[in-house]
TrEMBL record:
Residues 158-191 are annotated as: Disordered. GO terms for cellular component: cytosol; nucleus. SUPFAM superfamilies: HSP20-like chaperones (SSF49764). This is CS domain-containing protein. It holds the Pfam family CS. Belongs to the p23/wos2 family. Residues 159-174 have a biased composition (Gly residues). GO terms for biological process: chaperone-mediated protein complex assembly; protein folding. GO terms for molecular function: Hsp90 protein binding; protein-folding chaperone binding. Residues 14-102 form the CS domain.
Length: 191
């Protein structure tokens, strides 16, 4: 936090906003870490995201030129206890994933990828519903946290192994295994 003297007033300069982002084909998810954010001001334009808030005694502000156009009317934000989450609707939903959040091809140390919420194009199954941003950040979703799968489906997918019973053999031997122990070399006993 920087303090500047202007006349007899002390002015506080805003800090850059720490941004984490992820995306889906239709939208961009942004998380701004700001505990107990007050005076939150989010302005989404077609090519720009403007944000400001106070968190404790710190003031954050940023203006980010976006990589591509978004639809401000379909975009939204939610203020949570520890962060502010934004969901920006992409204008061109059929375009490829954005290679970066900003229009400029410059590394910004305040913008990072949110790997907990990132989904590659080949990972999408079409069933994802973020609703009120879907249990962000990045839970497993669905009933019981198993991506919408019930216990029977999970056990069937695991090959029926429920607990310790029914452990498959994996070729480790057992009563039915062929015994070629004579050909195996046995290590000498430890001294």
């Amino acid at each position: 936090q920087f303090l500047y003297f202007i006349g007899k007033e002390i002015t506080t300069m805003a800090l850059p906003t720490p941004i984490q982002w992820a995306q889906r084909p239709e939208f961009v998810l942004i998380t701004i870490a700001a505990t107990d954010a007050k005076d939150v001001n989010v302005k989404v334009l077609e090519n720009t995201l403007s944000f400001s808030c106070t968190s404790g005694d710190k003031k954050f502000a940023s203006e980010t030129p976006l990589f591509a156009e978004v639809v401000p009317e379909e975009s939204s934000h939610v203020v949570r206890d520890r962060c502010v989450e934004l969901k920006l609707a992409k204008k061109d939903k059929s375009a490829e994933y954005w290679p970066r959040l900003t229009k400029d091809k410059v590394k910004n140390p305040h913008i990072t990828i949110d790997w907990n919420r990132w989904k590659d194009e080949d990972e999408l199954d079409g069933k994802e519903d973020l609703g009120d941003f879907g249990g962000m950040p990045g839970g497993m979703g669905g009933p019981g946290g198993m991506g919408g799968m019930d216990m029977q489906q999970m056990l069937a997918q695991m090959g029926g192994m429920g607990g310790a019973g029914g452990v498959p053999d994996f070729g480790q031997g057992g009563a039915d295994a062929d015994s070629d122990d004579e050909d195996e070399e046995v290590p000498p006993p430890l001294e």
